[in-house]
Fold this sequence. Notes:
Layout: E1 3-7, E2 10-14, E3 16-20, E4 25-35, E5 52-63, E6 66-75, E7 84-94, E8 98-108, E9 111-122, E10 131-132, E11 136-140, E12 144-156, E13 159-168, E14 172-181
Antiparallel strand pairs: 1-2, 2-4, 3-4, 4-5, 5-6, 6-7, 7-8, 8-9, 10-12, 11-12, 12-13, 13-14
Amino acid sequence: xxxxxxxxxxxxxxxxxxxxxxxxxxxxxxxxxxxxxxxxxxxxxxxxxxxxxxxxxxxxxxxxxxxxxxxxxxxxxxxxxxxxxxxxxxxxxxxxxxxxxxxxxxxxxxxxxxxxxxxxxxxxxxxxxxxxxxxxxxxxxxxxxxxxxxxxxxxxxxxxxxxxxxxxxxxxxxxxxxxxxxxxxx
Length: 186
């Protein structure tokens, strides 16, 4: 039947569940849900408490922080059909740290964009690590089909920089940059 599993860091809905209340381990068939790290807000720190969504034929809960998603998809978008998803044969979810997807296909609006033997996505309490951002794809009446990518660089707990390049076929190449900072009272 319709099973709902609710925990402080996770919420799952499944067709079937096998769960041991003493060991807190179990598995769920045809499961959808999300995990959310416990974010402790700090002054002058940019952070998010957004959940990480997943769906899988089988989802195993190994402990409070570790889930394995078999033959499923993972995303930060609440509605994966209107954003990006990673379809994976297997995804190891470490709540508050990262998701490692094996046999991963990155999809945008359900369309496969590229394949990778594995992808790592940070879902940490402090996911502020330098790295290449996901590609940006879109359309515009003035600029046409747009495609670009960028790089994220955190300077410290309260400031970061995103730099990238966009290809606008009707206008040419363009740079994209955003600097964010939470200043102190002084």
